[in-house]
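We emphasize that the prediction below concerns an isolated chain of 371 residues; any contacts that depend on oligomerization or on bound cofactors are therefore not represented. The input was used exactly as deposited, without trimming of termini.
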Amino acid sequence: MTPTTSRRRRLAAALGLAAGALALGAVFGQPGNGRAAADAAPANTATPTVTGTPQEGQTLRATPGTWSGSPTSYAYAWSRCDKNGDTCKAVSGATDDAYQLGGGDVDHTLRVTVTAKNSDGSTSATSAPSAVVSSAAAPTNTGAPTISGTVAIGQKLTASKDSWSNNPNSFAYAWSRCDENGNICSTIGGATDDNYTLKQVDAGTTLRVSVTASNAAGSTTATSVPTARIAGPPPPPVSNGCPGGSGTIQVKDLAEPARMTVSGWTMAPGVVRPSVSSVQFRIRITACSGRAVQGATVFAVPIPYNEFRGVQATTDASGFATLTEPGAGGYPASRRQQLLAVLVRATKPGDSALGGVSTRRVVTFPASTRG
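Result of the prediction step, given as a token string:
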């Protein structure tokens, strides 16, 4: 073999080896071809979704969403969350792509987590929450509505919806006016709040309230027992300004031309002396032929005013107001003082102190400059 022939053979062998290397690189070295490419677990490109009616007894279904990396299998896990889709806890055993809603899911939302797998690994993605799950049945009343408040004209009554099953999510109110026995009722137009202020037209009747509870499955109405018979307003004053009847007069029922009278007064101690640090006056107010007046404002101040500090008080059911007044440093007003003069004024709250049914009078008590 000549040297030239040998060199040609070596060159041909080298070229063959180079071509083989290029072929292997084409198979194993280029991205995306064969196992030499970088390994990759699935990646989520569109989140899973939950479909179906969110109501007790219905079935929700999960769709896995879309994934890259050619997943070979999917696993499902359902979670029960609060109404906002937060504070989620796994539902034990709920690992299928379908989930039947039960009583424990009412008033909650559901999410599903999908785990996609391939030979290189696994990745999980979670759906948005479902809508809030409703009850399968309309509400059932388990405690009748009640009415509280004073049954008198001008007073406010308040309705309590009481208790219901099957998770109602809204309540509506309707008030009705009935006869004195709670029968033959008619709906009061516009009375649709949970409270109602009694009007003159309600006098002598009774009232009931109906509460309608609703959820996604329907609604149910329950009605209260009737109130007591509604008292009418107090009898109007007669022409002389005095309310009808007998006994104690509420000052608010007293009108002109009637006037209050300062009809009684006492003091403790029985005699005012320089050593006394305070005095207590008991003043009685009456009107309309000696009937006690309750609720009148009584003010009493000694004359001169700097002997004791004037205060005010309100009359009780017997017509008396009790006023305790501390010394003001001005007693005795003179070295020969024998009487303590006190200006007493009684007024109806809201009226002028110089008009209406108010009254004024100067009363006196024993006094001494000794002791």
